Amino acid sequence: MSVERARALRKVMSVKEVRLWVRLRSLRADGFHFRRQAPLLGYYPDFICLGRRLVVEVDGHHEELEQAAHDAYRDQVFRRSGFQTLRFPTRAVHEDIDAVVGVICQALSAASPTRPLRGHPPHKGEGRDLS
């Protein structure tokens, strides 16, 4: 996976994606960290919260059958690795972004964290020994 490709994709985000990105970034205050166009399992999802294993996609309004099949396969790849995918049409992001963010927040709250939201694990030899 190419870091350069991810950077290039970030530069050509649609207006709707940028609008949603601004809202997702504000969720950091609640402990939810999203990345945009980050490499994941051979793909570059629009947005991903690794701590809650949540992928968020903004789909264009003219989805073709071939694209829909590709998206379904990609969602299956993510699901096999423990990720949930939420897809929103650009129209929903444009017309009711509050509802879109509400659905995302519900999914974040329902998902179990994959790691502690704060702090790092102790170094070897530090912390409590439970053995």
Description:
By secondary structure, the chain is α+β, with helices and mostly antiparallel strands. The protein has a single domain (3-110), classed as 3-Layer(aba) Sandwich (Endonuclease, Chain A). 43% of the residues lie in helices and 13% in strands. It has helices spanning 3-11, 15-25, 65-80, 90-95, 97-110; strands at residues 35-36, 47-49, 54-59, 84-89. A 4-stranded mixed sheet has the order 1-2-3-4, sandwiched between helices. It is globular, with a radius of gyration of 17 Å. The mean pLDDT is 83.
What does this entry show, briefly?
The chain has a 4-stranded mixed beta sheet, with helices on both faces.
Order of helices and strands: HHEEEHEHH
Number of E strands: 4
The CATH fourth-level homologous superfamily: VSR Endonuclease
Q: Can you tell me the CATH architecture?
A: 3-Layer(aba) Sandwich
Intertermini distance: 39 Å
What is the overall pLDDT average?
83
Strand order of the largest sheet: 1-2-3-4
CATH class: Alpha Beta
Q: Which stretches of 5+ consecutive residues score pLDDT under 50?
A: none
Biggest beta sheet attributes: 4 strands, mixed
Gross geometry: globular
Give the radius of gyration.
Answer: 17 Å
